[in-house]
Design a protein that fits this description.
The complex is a heterodimer of chains A (187) and B (193). Chain A is an alpha+beta fold and 187 residues long. In chain A, 37% of the residues lie in helices and 22% in strands. Chain A has one domain. Chain A has a five-stranded antiparallel β-sheet with strand order 1-2-3-4-5, with helices on both faces. Chain B has one domain. The two termini of chain B are 23 Å apart. The chains are: A alpha+beta (187), B mainly alpha (193).
């Protein structure tokens, strides 16, 4: 009886292990492609490979990944990958592209577990919610929903998701300000 | 029982959702849109066919005391394989369904068919039974997803059909129960007629 269960478990593990090994590289490639696509979507024009120059920074103890972009050797902005845990259904990972002056160029949601049909409208494919941030500079644009005294139109019936989105943009902006000074010194 | 009847039984008179009322967790959880329902149904069908096939092959060798754990291990292996393959080769589909794939392991319909059919029947018949139940499950999920999407967000397979935001409640969990209840009534009404 125990032997039988042991054999089945061993067999199952062997099958899963081999499939894992076979799919390991395609999965890594697919995930890298996803990050690169998100970078390309959120940044203005660039001619370097930001993923190769990525580095991590800490903002208030939260880890943020920075993908600096260059055009003809000049700093052309940065894509910032940040995570917030204030979502309604779990963590929300967002890629935010900033122009060199700190203006938001575009945003892309990489992963989230918000309620389908409500909070998932933060995805630009589902609603125009995230488009309102394009061309806004968080230095002057108050990143909070209108209910909290900010300037952001929240998603109907998804205020928590909207707040979380503002939170992650704010985190990315603060990370960008740190970076900006660093990059500015280089030029 | 003829081979064809094994398949149609799973779709109509033994429909997992509307007649057997099995696998309610993914049914209520994933059907916020027709596409999600369809994708979840197809992934479950795939797992059902393969797990039924393998379980009917090994059922005779397993002592009855460890039967259920053994079946669960076999099912979990196939679910993990589906998840990894989907993640590697169709990342776009994985993005929408990824969260729900692991739920297939605890889907009562998969274990239900393994226990009620595959462990007592020949491999080919078990495979067909998995196919039939899978199609029935897929149709049920897609129908429920389409109804909820139409009422809740005014769209059909992602295409906007009705103006406005729709009735929010149908996207949320309570709407799932309401829509499922009415569909079940209608299905059984037609089945008896």
């Amino acid at each position: 009886m125990f032997l039988c269960l042991l054999i089945i478990c061993l067999g199952g593990s062997a099958v899963m292990g081999s499939v894992y090994l076979i799919t390991y590289e395609p999965i890594a490639a697919a995930q890298a492609a996803k990050v690169n696509q998100a970078i390309a979507r959120v940044l203005p024009e660039f001619d370097n490979v930001p993923a190769l120059e990525a580095y991590q920074v800490l903002v208030d103890g939260r880890q943020v990944t920075v993908y600096p972009a260059q055009k003809d050797g000049v700093f052309a902005g940065a894509a910032i990958e940040a995570v917030t845990t204030r979502g309604f259904g779990g963590p929300i990972k967002v890629m935010v592209g900033f122009r060199p002056d700190g203006t938001i160029h575009n945003t892309a949601v990489i992963s989230h577990t918000e309620t389908p049909g409500l909070g998932d409208k933060m995805d630009p494919r589902k609603s125009d919610f995230s488009l309102q941030f394009q061309g806004k500079n968080p230095g002057t644009f108050r990143l909070a929903v209108k209910k909290d005294g900010g300037q952001v139109d929240a998603i109907t019936a998804a205020t928590i998701s909207s707040r979380a989105f503002c939170d992650v943009l704010d985190l990315a902006y603060r990370a960008f300000i740190q970076t900006d000074q660093k990059e500015g010194g280089k030029q | 029982m003829s081979r064809l009847r094994i398949i149609t039984k799973g779709i109509i008179s033994g429909n997992p959702i509307f007649v057997l009322v099995l696998g309610m967790c993914p049914t209520l959880g994933t059907t916020t849109s027709a596409v999600n329902g369809l994708g979840m149904g197809l992934a479950t069908t795939f797992v059902l066919m393969l797990s039924n096939l393998v379980i009917s092959l090994i059922a005779g060798l397993i002592p009855s005391k460890v039967r259920i754990p053994s079946f669960i291990v076999v099912i979990a292996v196939f679910v993990t394989v589906v998840q990894l393959i989907m993640q590697a080769y169709v990342p776009a589909l994985y993005e929408t369904l990824g969260l729900f794939i692991p739920l297939i392991v605890v889907n009562c319909i998969v274990l239900g068919r393994a226990e009620a059919f595959a462990s007592k029947n020949k491999p080919l018949d078990s495979f067909l039974d998995g196919l039939g139940s899978g199609i029935g499950f897929t149709l049920g999920l897609t129908l429920l997803g389409a109804v909820r999407e139409l009422l809740g967000s005014g769209a059909f397979f992602g295409w906007k059909m009705l103006p406005g935001d729709g009735m929010l409640v149908f996207i949320l969990a309570p709407g799932a129960f309401i829509a499922l209840g009415y569909l079940m009534v209608l299905f059984n009404k037609f089945l008896k007629a």
